[in-house]
């Protein structure tokens, strides 16, 4: 520390540069490979970076998403930053696509027939949309007559919802609690921790 300011070492600065330059979240394994350092050293470097961002009151932080790390803006500045993306946001997913994606997320891997039996309607269009947007993928075939396709969520799904892994999906009791809330209460609760509306 110099004058109350944490001075970052070479490794922390390398990790910062890699995460900043990458279009996708970088895993611990990738950071180890690129820097030639061990996992413990990388975790410590990430901690030092976040401490430095916090101590110096930066609007940035390093967050874990989709099994990797990326630089993100502090939620406190979400309303200001969101102005940059007005008019450029990708089209919202339809209710049918969101319902289909939820079934897949909680039941994966699952077949189209299983999804349709839960939703009670045909899901071909929703599945096609989710495949095109890389939110789900074909993860194999079921070993039953006809060998139907199995669907699972992708890394893009985790990134979209700001989840580090599927263990961070809301539990069913949390969802039941939320079903009784109004849409504005749901937005305030920020179910997936995205900080977005």
The CATH topology of the largest domain turns out to be Arc Repressor Mutant, subunit A
Derived structural class: mainly alpha
Distance between the termini: 39 Å
- Please tell me the overall pLDDT: 80
**SSE ordering:** HHHEEHHHHEEHHH
Shape: elongated
- Total of domains: 3
Count of alpha and pi helical runs: 10
Structure description:
This protein folds into 3 domains: 65 residues, Winged helix-like DNA-binding domain superfamily/Winged helix DNA-binding domain (Arc Repressor Mutant, subunit A); 66 residues, Orthogonal Bundle (Arc Repressor Mutant, subunit A); 34 residues, no CATH class. The longest helix is centred in the first third of the chain and has 17 residues. The relative contact order is 0.10. It is elongated. It is built from 10 helices and 4 strands, in the order αααββααααββααα. With 197 residues, the chain is mainly alpha-helical.
Helix and strand arrangement:
Blueprint: H1 10-21, H2 28-35, H3 39-55, E1 60-65, E2 68-73, H4 78-81, H5 95-107, H6 112-119, H7 124-132, E3 136-141, E4 149-153, H8 155-161, H9 172-179, H10 183-189
Antiparallel strand pairs: 1-2, 3-4
